[in-house]
Amino acid sequence: MEPVLGWLFIDYLAGIFESFVNPQKRVSLLYIFSALILVLVFGIIVSIKGRKSMIVANLAAVVSSKIWFSKSSRADIYMLFINRAVMMGLSPLLLSRIAATTFLFLFFHETIGSYAGKLSYLPTWVAPVTYTVTLFIFDDMSRYLVHRAMHHFPPLWAFHKVHHSAEYLTPLTVLRTHPIEGVIFSLRSSIVQAVTIASFVFLFGEKIDLITVFGVNIFLFLFNISGANLRHSHFSLSYGTFWERIFISPAQHQIHHSIDVKHQNKNFGVVLSIWDRLGGSLFLAQKGEDLKFGVSGKSVFNSHNLGYLYLEPFKEAYKVALLSKFSILGRIMKLEFLSFFGKGLTQKNLFLLLAVGIITGWSVPLGAKELNIYSHRQPFLINPFLRAFEAETGIKTNVVFSSKGLAQRLLAEGKRSPADVVLTVDISRLNVYADKNLLTPINSKILESNIPAHLRDSKNRWFGLSKRARIIVASNDRVAAREISRIEDLSNPSWKGRICSRPGSHVYNRALLASIIAANGEAAAENWARGLVSNLAQRPQGNDRAQIKAIFQGVCDIAIVNSYYFGKLRFAKILEQREWTKGTRIIFTNQDDRGNHINISGAGVAKYSRNKEAAVKFLEFLSGPTAQKLYTEINYEFPGNPKIPLSPEQLSWGEFVEDKLPIGVIAELAPKAQIIIDRVGW
Question: Which of 624, 666, 667 is nearest to 465 (CA)?
């Protein structure tokens, strides 16, 4: 009984309540209130101009009891509650943006990988601005195309007709949709976001972000706040001829709902009317039109009967899609079973419909012991940990891997996200999740005991699990002992033409520069970065392995790399790669002052995890002896847990002093570091 009540109040009713308080929803009270303000303002303006007072008349067109208590409007409200239950059951099946984004991102890397990060050199502001504009335009255009298709393709019209069957329009009419239409538009949204996110992350790297107001795309926020809810109302608000050729006004959308023949198949656009102009479906608002709403024709919908609204579309869609071409199949199925649909939705049948939604929706949060992991770490690096965890706990793990774009994906999914755990390879990425409020605080004495304070979030939203030192690898023959000892030495002109590095915008180098900012200030850090760039033997390129190879090839004498890459190359399966480390040594920097800069891999529990207890158990496991030894012995990373001894290979590198700067400071300074990187061309 307790789980059922939990589902009812935490998931079902809370979700309905959220529709009216979340600014990301069209029917948010914020937007409804703003629509009422507009109605009053226009009434006042008309009154000031000397005409009869329109304030009361305008309000009556929006809040009239005749409208809100009509059978049509009551059906809107009933569908709100039913659709919530049904879509909760269907939503776990509609998370295709995860697979789509991952597929597209990897596809881009496989086919046009040479273009990856090509636009990352542009100023920091370019990526979020162009991403926001592109997503808005792509989203609006796709809405127009799908909406138009639902009017012109008979099987789809059978379902979309449910929305148009409303004889009275209120803001809640936007929620009067058949679940099949909800599925279609959900898939549309997933595809649009997947294509946009994958493309921008591929081209711009981690610079992309969405410009938002209250978490909403700024353009959609402006649209919603400026009277979007008047689209479904009896208050006719026109923008005038000029602006209605650019934007769809509430009056134009009301024309779209009109049963008048001349208004049929007009004004499919949501925000922009440009698409209707291009498609020949634009109809400008005209003064003094008395519109009637609903559907007309030979097949008139019963707009008040819930059984009819939910079930008749299947019957009609089946007839138009199959019977005309597959009459034999139609005769075999005979359609007698559909007769039940036209009898109306009895109390018993309504209960059954709701029960289906409840059961399917409930089944997900109460699912089996499985963890869904969003990982920035490559599968082969974490598979040994996952196998050990599964063997110890019996909890199965599922992994979605992507080097970039997972935070944006998690943000887009919201409460529907299947993610339980987020694994990252860098403090800045962890901080992105924390800043976007995508992680939930953890109360675990085990984690607090195993992970030192400077390696975890002050609010316990994330924990560092392994450490990697940003070291210098040097040629034994070409670099004398003690020739370099501090990271600051890399800007010395004596190293001109002798240094190799991957691009500065990579998270590892950005974190390194952030640590220098913390130690020496922004001005000194920028001077250092300029000196480093002037000392490079070649343009920044490749990964950390490539830098060690460049030393082997004689391209440079020293390189900036992560410590664990040295160990991986020493024991690489490809014998040629083992040769790259011969004749080289590791130099830990700043041993006489603050210590060598370190970064972390870490993890957090997703905010909307459905299995938080198991997720915390997984993080505790990763901080414990079994996993920590795997970090050192397999990945050659330093353990985050100071009680775990180093591997023999790591001991051979020698002891070193690490920088104990709280790792969160690195994340805070990363944006300043990126500005410097862009400015100096690293």
Answer: 624
**What is the Cα 55 distance to its own chain's centre?**
43
Of the given ranges (115-119, 373-377, 532-536), which has the lowest mean pLDDT?
Answer: 115-119
Q: State whether residue 359 is helix, strand or coil.
A: helix
CB distance 265 to 164 below 8 Å: no
Q: Where are the alpha helices (DSSP H) in 372-506?
A: 379-393, 406-413, 427-435, 445-450
Give me the phi and psi of 560, to 5 degrees please: -95, 120
In 520-592 the beta strands, taken as DSSP E runs, fall at 558-562, 584-587
Residue 297 has pLDDT above 80, yes or no: no
Residue 89 host element (H or E): helix 71-90
Q: Please choose, from the candidates 20, 1, 4, the residue with its C-alpha nearest in 3D space to the C-alpha of residue 361.
A: 4
233-280 confidence digits (pLDDT tens) = 999 899 999 999 999 999 999 999 999 989 989 999 999 999 999 999
The length of the chain is 682
Of the residues 197, 216, 235, the one at which a domain ends: 235
What pLDDT is stored for residue 561 in this prediction?
A: 97
Residue 400 maps to which CATH number? 3.40.190.10
In a domain, 63, yes or no: yes
Residues ≥6 apart with Cβ < 8 Å to 6: none
Give the separation between CA 571 and CA 69, rounded to whole angstroms: 75
Helix (H, G, I), strand (E, B) or coil at 466: strand
Beta-ladder partners of 558: 474, 499
Q: Is residue 511 part of a domain?
A: no
Residues 140 and 9 in one domain: yes
CB-based burial of residue 592 (10 Å sphere; 0-12 exposed, 13-18 middle, 19+ buried)?
A: exposed
* Residues 56 and 141 grouped into a single domain: yes
User: How far is residue 577's CA from residue 352's CA, in Å, rounded to a whole number?
Assistant: 64
Structure tokens at 204: 């711009």
- Contact status, residue 590 vs residue 596, Cβ threshold 8 Å: yes
pLDDT at 340 over 60: no
- Look up tokens 């353009």; give the residue: 219
Domain count for the chain, please give it: 4
Q: How far apart, in whole angstroms, are the C-alpha atoms of residue 508 and residue 677?
A: 12
Model pLDDT for residues 12-24, shown as the tens digit of each residue: 787 788 788 888 8
What DSSP line would sit under 527-546, residue for residue?
Answer: HHHHHHHHHBSS-S-S-HHH
Range of the domain at 241: 236-289
Q: Find the range with the poorest average confidence among 314-323, 495-504, 646-655.
A: 314-323
Are 452 and 436 spatial neighbours (Cβ–Cβ below 8 Å)?
Answer: no
Coil, strand or helix: which one is 444? coil
The rounded distance, in Å, linking the Cα atoms of 191 and 194 is 5
DSSP letter at 635? S
Residue 231, domain member (yes or no): yes
What's the CA gap between 534 and 624, in Å, rounded?
44
Q: Is residue 551 part of a domain?
A: no
